[in-house]
Specification:
Blueprint (H helix, E strand, L loop, with lengths): L31 E5 L6 H7 L4 E8 L2 E8 L1 H5 L9 E9 L6 H5 L4 E8 L4 H7 L4 E6 L1 E2 L13 E6 L3 H8 L29 E2 L1 H13 L2 H9 L1 E2 L7 H7 L19
Parallel strand pairs: 3-10, 4-9
Antiparallel strand pairs: 1-5, 2-5, 2-7, 3-4, 6-8
Protein name: Gamma-glutamylcyclotransferase AIG2-like domain-containing protein
């Protein structure tokens, strides 16, 4: 894999929201462990926010489902969301519920994700980038080729987990308190309820293409994991099936000004 491009300076966190980093994800030297499941599958993308990251590698994650089930305000700001086709969604993780089949959700070994560590002073920029999520400390497993998944050393790392409109409003938008809506970017909400068919939202093209290319760069196993264990908002349709039905998605490049950021 070619070395990542020179990173931009880390984004500045919103002064109105200074989250505390989950202490379980903080290492003894003050660095913070992070698990990536979407755009953070790309080291180049991760370095846009955390230019000094270290130890980028693949890991396994169990007990969660990867799903395109929420709108992302930043996609509207960057002009890549399409409200007419409902291709406006981003990725998040959601904990499996009783009755969910783990093998269907993430395969027998867990889904392939990435792991890296960032300096503590770069955490606020990461939190600003992932503003709509709950940043939860979760256990990950080393990605070993033993057929059963790697062992866990007991350490935890931050994962972007499904949150709620109310939590987003409480953290970021005083004007939204009590409305329950996404407001300000043309959508009535950010988070959509599960298992709705047909889905209320579909993958944002430039973002989904970027994530597929990032997974491909990690190798065939990571790509298969991403295609077969990433779901649309109905929690049934896999991304592989969606791409088979919509092959033009992978043929649609991002706008020129975003080509490097959304280039896999």
């Amino acid at each position: 894999m070619p070395p990542p491009a020179r990173a931009s300076p880390p984004a500045q966190a919103s002064p109105s929201y200074a989250p505390e980093c989950p202490p379980e994800a903080v290492r003894d030297d003050g660095w913070v462990g992070v698990v990536g499941i979407g755009s953070l599958l790309s080291e180049r993308s991760a370095r846009h926010t955390s230019p000094n990251l270290r130890g980028f590698k693949t890991v396994r994650l169990r007990g969660y489902r990867r799903v395109f089930a929420h709108t992302a305000p930043v996609f509207f700001e960057r002009g890549i969301a399409d409200g007419k086709t409902r291709e406006v969604s981003s990725l998040s993780m959601e904990a499996l519920e009783p009755g969910d089949d783990p093998r269907e959700a993430h395969g027998p070994r867990g889904l392939v994700a990435t792991y890296f560590e960032i300096p503590g002073e770069e955490f606020p920029a990461l939190a600003a980038r992932e503003a709509e999520f709950e940043l939860r400390a979760v256990t990950y497993e080393d990605d070993e080729d033993d057929g059963e998944g790697g062992g866990s050393d007991g350490k935890k790392a931050i994962l972007c987990v499904r949150s709620s409109d109310a939590a987003y409003a409480e953290r970021h938008c005083e004007r939204m308190k009590g409305t329950g809506g996404g407001g300000g970017f043309g959508e009535e909400r950010i988070w959509y309820p599960g298992r709705r068919s047909p889905p209320a939202v579909y993958p944002t093209r430039a973002y989904a293409r970027h994530c597929v290319l990032a997974a491909k760069s990690l190798g065939p196993e990571a790509l298969a994991s991403f295609l077969d264990h990433t779901f649309l908002a109905d929690r049934r349709t896999t991304l592989r099936t969606h791409l088979e039905r919509n092959p033009s998605l992978m043929e649609t490049p991002p706008p020129p000004e975003l080509a490097e950021r959304y280039g896999g």
